[in-house]
Design a protein that fits this description.
six-stranded mixed beta sheet; Alpha-Beta Plaits; Rossmann fold; Beta-Lactamase
Length: 533
């Protein structure tokens, strides 16, 4: 007879915690019935729940019992005054966090200072003005709520830090890498050797589709292909196997005693004599309950969320039946550690992806989305060194949008930004090779690096850029050159060598750009120095 473990579902803060709104409670402590009546009416009309106490002793008792959200405390009272009441409340762990606002007379300056020293947050003077008292109450309740929220956030953060520290220690014991495929492969190998079983599978399930993530088999045991319909039937059907999502594990010890003949035939296709399936939850507080084959037709008593369900750890014995007794608790512990490793690896992959995106952002111009000046400097230096080792021509085109300051003055900076974006896209369409780079050199200037490009090729690219920019047909009414936006281009080309420097190529491209501008703009000019002469 198989053992049955009690079923305990994981507590999940996101699903189990409900947001509760409550009526804020204000305690008014005053020996003046008129003041109590006025304050009660004011506060009740604004939706507050009001508690009253007519002396300091009752005020302390009520505050200790009810723990109100705020206390309005008169300074002058019989028996014990408001100063002593405040002192006692602030020395009590139950009530020391409650904000206290003193109610004082106009001349009680010394008492006000003393009260604030004792821990009161504010005071109001008699006669009480409704707008003033409500404003002060609202301010300090808001501060109190913010402090409570911050305290809760800090507590959660501390818990998360502690969990992550424990998470790291456990994960390090079962992984040799942060790459998920390596983690799963190593775990499968360890389990196969530890249990001396015939086949270990680790599979994920997404949108009712099972994917085989890792598989280790013993000698003479065939591997399973997860593309088969049998695999999907056994391990991806949530409707047929709701018990997995309920946090149970499933096992059978001898296929020959299996009552479901259809499933028996499916298992026999892979020579499976005994099987143990442990669900893997990314919420590792999930307990496990064994399901015997005859229970498949019984609906589970309750449902739990699928959100933390990741997949299965599957153990097969193929050469003979096998009892799963001591292995169950062991694999439960291993699946818990495995889930931690999976979460760590997924987090690592997210960080890795985010870092790649950050690197892209670091080399991109935020306005035009072409490469920025920093990337231009780095890439030109790299290409120069590379083409010095393997000599080949390197061309550079420098472009400048004609009369861009006039364009900005005419149409405004927002339209100017859009103009630069469109010009950048037009230039990018003229450079189709992976080795070519379009950069925003600065302001309205662009630079195009063309490795392995002779002067003739660079000139063709520059001509294409000139035409593409004109085809944008962006109006430039006040331009001395044209009624539409145009660009001037300077082209330089050389074959890098150890005796030359990339700065010369930039300077010569600049010279040719200056020449294009001086000759009337909306054109290209060429400069080809001989660095090797």
């Amino acid at each position: 007879m198989q053992l049955r473990a009690s079923r305990v579902f994981p507590w999940n803060e996101n699903h189990m915690q409900s947001l509760v709104t409550k009526q804020e409670v204000i305690l008014v402590v005053d020996d003046d019935n008129y003041n109590l009546k006025i304050l009660s009416e004011i506060l009740s009309n604004k939706g507050y729940k009001v508690l009253i106490a007519q002396n300091g002793i009752n005020g302390i008792e009520t505050a200790t019992t009810a723990i109100p959200d705020m206390i309005l405390l008169d300074i002058k009272m019989p028996q014990i005054d408001g100063i002593e009441v405040c002192q006692r409340l602030k020395s009590n762990l139950l009530t020391q966090h409650i904000p206290i606002i003193f109610i004082t007379g106009l001349s009680e300056t010394e008492s006000k200072v003393q009260g604030l020293t004792m821990g009161a947050v504010d005071y109001v003077t008699k006669p009480i003005e409704e707008e003033e008292i409500l404003a002060r109450i609202n301010t300090h309740l808001t501060i109190k709520n913010l402090q409570q929220t911050l305290s809760q956030q800090n507590k959660r953060l501390e818990e998360q830090v502690q969990q992550e520290q424990l998470f790291t220690k456990i994960a390090e014991r079962i992984r040799s890498s942060l790459e998920l495929p390596k983690i799963l492969s190593k775990v499968a190998q360890d389990i196969q050797q530890l249990l001396e079983c015939d086949r270990v599978l680790i599979t994920s399930v997404t949108d009712n589709h099972a994917s085989l993530e890792a598989q280790v088999v013993g000698q003479g045991i065939s591997k399973i292909l997860d593309r088969t319909s049998t695999w999907q039937t056994l391990y991806s059907d949530r409707e047929k196997y709701p018990q997995y999502q309920e946090g149970y594990c499933y096992s059978f010890e001898d296929i020959n005693t299996f009552k479901d003949l259809i499933l028996q035939k499916l298992y026999q296709q892979w020579d499976i004599q005994a099987e143990l399936v442990i669900p893997i939850w990314l919420d590792t507080n999930q307990a496990v309950h064994q399901i015997e084959p005859e229970e498949y037709e019984i609906s589970p008593p309750s449902k739990c969320s699928f959100l933390s369900f990741w997949g299965y750890l599957i153990i097969h014995q193929c050469n003979a039946p096998r009892q799963w007794r001591s292995e169950i608790s062991l694999l439960q512990r291993l699946s818990t550690q495995l889930s931690i490793a999976i979460k760590q690896a997924l987090l690592y992959q997210k960080i890795k992806t985010a870092n790649i995106e950050l690197q892209k952002l670091a080399v991109r111009d935020s306005l035009t989305q072409v490469f920025n000046r920093r990337y231009f400097d780095r890439q030109l230096a790299l290409e120069w060194r590379r083409l010095t080792r393997h000599p080949s021509p390197l061309s550079l085109i420098m472009g400048d949008v004609d009369h861009f300051k006039i364009y900005n003055d005419t149409y405004g900076h927002q339209q100017g930004d859009e103009c630069l974006r469109q010009v950048a896209r037009a230039i990018a369409t003229c450079t189709r090779r992976p080795a070519d780079f379009v950069c925003r050199y600065g302001g309205e200037e662009f630079a195009i690096i063309l490795p392995h490009t002779h002067l003739e090729g660079a000139v063709k690219v520059a001509q294409s850029i000139n035409i593409k920019v004109q085809e944008l047909n962006l109006k430039h009414a006040n331009s001395p050159t044209s009624s539409i936006v145009t660009i001037s281009l300077g082209v330089a080309c050389t074959t890098p060598s150890r005796d030359s420097d990339a700065q010369y190529l930039i300077e010569n491209a600049d010279r040719s750009l200056y020449k294009a501008k001086s000759e009337g703009r909306n054109r290209l000019a060429v400069y080809q120095p001989d660095f090797n002469s």
